[in-house]
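#help-structures
NK: newbie question, is this the right format to request a structure? protein is histidine kinase
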Amino acid sequence: MTRRNLTIDAGVAGLVFGATLALLAARGFGSPYPGARGLDVTGVVLAAFASLPLAVRRIRALTAYLVIAVATLVLLWLGYSLDGPFGVAVATYGVSVAYSGDRRRARRAVAMLAIVGFLVAVAVGYAAAGLSGRAMVTLLLVWPAFFVGLWIAGDRTRLRQERIAALAERARRADREAQRERRLAAARERTRIARELHDSAGHAINVILVQAGAARLLHDRDPERSRAAIGAIEQVARNMIGEIDRLVGALREDDGTDGSSVPADPSALDELLGQYEAAGLQITADVSGTRGVLPPSVAWAAYRILQEALTNAVRHGTGTADVAIEFGPEAVEIAVANPVRRGGDADRLGAEGAVGRAGHGIVGMRERALLLGGTLDVAGDRRSFRLAARLPHARPAEGFRSAAPVRLAAELRPVGELRPFGELRDDAGRREVAS
C-alpha cells in the first residue's frame, strides 16, 4: 500500500461523501419523494459512515464494505432518499478486486454473500415501505445487474494487476539473471587472463634461470657474454614487472576454466584475418604502423578482441567486415565494422543503449581492454555494428595511467582507404621477396 494509493482513496472517499450529502439534501434524483426525510445531523453522520471508510478499502476491503452497507441500509430504513448508493458501489468494486481471485473459497463466498445480502435487504426495505410493484420489478432487475457489472469490472482489474505484477517480477528476474551472467562472464575472462599471465611469468622465469646460469658459468671465462646475459635478465625482469603491474591487481582466483593460449606474436593477427577470409568472410583490411615486440598480454588481448569481433561479423553480419589495425608507438588500435543481417540477432551484439544488452563476448573484450588500461567502445543499430579498441603497451614514466578515449570504428579509418585483406597479404609477400 503506497502513499499515492492512500491519497487517491482518501480523495475518492471525500468525493463520495460530498455526493451523498448533495443527494440527501436534494431528497433524491428528480422530484422529491413524498415524505422523504431531509438532510439533518443524523443524515450527515450516516452519510459519513456510508462513504468515508472508502479511504481504507485497499487495506480492509470487506470491513469497509460492511460498514458502508449497514450505514446505507440505515439511511434507507430511516426514510432518507438515497437513490444512488455511491459508497456501496465503490466498496463493491474494491471487494471484487480483493476477493474475486481469492484461492480460499470461503472468503470469496463470504464477500459475494455480503453483496447479495445488501441487495436482498434493500429489496425488503423498499417492499416494507410500500414501493409499487412496477418500481420493485425495476429495482430487482437494475440493481443486481449493476452490482454484477461492478464485480466483473473488479475481477478484470485484479487480473490486469496480477499480469502487470508478473511482468514486473519477470523483468526484475531477467535483469538479475543478466547481471549474474555478466559477472560470470567477466570472472571467466579474468580467470583466462590470469592463466595467460601465469604462462607469461613462467616463460620469463625460465629465461631468467637460463641466463642466470649462463652468466654464472661465463663470469670468469667470458665477462662480456656474462654481462650480456645479466642484461637479458634485467630486460626480461623489467618486462615481467610491467605485465604484473597491468594485470595482477585486477584479477581474481583461478577456477580452472578455459586456459587455452593464443599466439602472442603480432603477425598472428594476419593469420587470424586469413582464417576468417578462408572461411568465407569478405574482409577489407588496413594494417598500418610498425610491428614491434608487444607485451604478451597486449598481443593476446588484441588477438582475442579481433577474434570475437570477426566471430560476431560471421554470426550476425551479412558476410563482410571492414578491419583497421594500427600498431602505434604507444598502443595498438583495432576497429571492426560490419553490416548487420536484417532479422538476425543484432540485439545480442550489444552496445548498451545502442543495439541492446551487451553479450558475453562484449563483456570479455571490454574486461581485457580495461585490465590493460585501455578502452573498448561498441556502437550500432539495426543496420551496422562497430567496435573500436585501444590497447596501450607503452609503459608510463610515473605509475599507471588510463588510456585516452578510443575512437569509434567509423572514425578510425575512412572506408575508402581500406583494401581487401588478400591484397595486403600479397603486398607483404612481395616485400619479403624484395628484402
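mod (FA): yep, format's fine, and the C-alpha cells are attached above. The chain has three domains: 3-131, 183-250, 268-434.
NK: thank you!
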